[in-house]
Amino acid sequence: MGVKIRDIDLGDFPLLLAPMEDVSDPPFRALCKKHGADLMYTEFISSEGLIRDAVKSVQKLDIYEYERPVGIQIFGHDIDSMIRTTEIVEQTNPDIIDINYGCPVKKVACKGAGAGILQDIPKMVEMTKRIVETTHLPVTVKTRLGWDDDTKYVVEVAERLQDVGIEAISIHGRTRKQMYKGDADWRLISEVKNNPRINIPVFGNGDIKTPEMAVEYKNRYGVDGVMIGRAAIGYPWIFNEIKHFIKTGGHMEKPSLQQRVAVTKEHLEMSLKWKNEILAINEMKRHYTNYFKGIPDFKPYRTKLVTSMNLEEIRDTLDEIAEKFDGVYKTLAGQK
User: Fold this and answer.
1) Does the domain at residues 4-248 carry the CATH identifier 3.20.20.70?
2) Which residues are catalytic?
3) Rounded Cα gap, residues 52 and 34, in angstroms
């Protein structure tokens, strides 16, 4: 039987797309779904922003049938605002509501939201309980090991959150103080998973960059699935590559240069449809390096892609890349 969040069957070892601000938008999620992601979460939505009807927050509620199952992730420091947000989110009919207790960014955490609430565990438990009571949807949580090395209470926290009704937990193997530095420590994630009191799915997050790592961490730490963030940026193929490796022990053929260019264009065109041109162009910039990783002498083209604000110039540059580097890339990838 597969891993389940209530009645949502996610398969034997689900691969989750992490919620990433300015990354996990509908165009990017569409590509990740197409390339094997089993469950995706939206970018996190500010409770205060949503209640005030801030355009950016409201736009993040956009979800589409082809994405399902999909969770909407919310964050905030005020319990009443989070209750109101839950009610608004519920009306958009996601499959899951996820609470962000992991964002380490100063403007979030230092206001007591995201990972900031790890300094007030009773409030974290109370907020979660109230949200669970407010909605008929399954509630999940994403969090970190603790605020710093002296407060790694995640084993106890997971128990208490399960006791008030959450139906899955994703744990990033770093403290808030670490931000994204150093290596993620999965030992405490494993401790949560292997705690006899825990009977909800436990997903591990942090540093999964290759199919080998996904399988190694699956076997070593016993988690129910893995959540992938940065490794998917500009490389949605990571999900199917992991699935193929789990199934066969071998590697899928890497995407050809033509496939990379085609998916980059697809991503760009979907972004243009979903948001305004300037935003679409700017937010694509973080993806280009990964889309074309490993190509020698690529720097001038990367510079063009990340500095140009002219749509036709960007499209022409992508066509030029497809033409100029095809032979080189085939040789590199052993696809002669």
Assistant:
1) yes
2) 103
3) 34
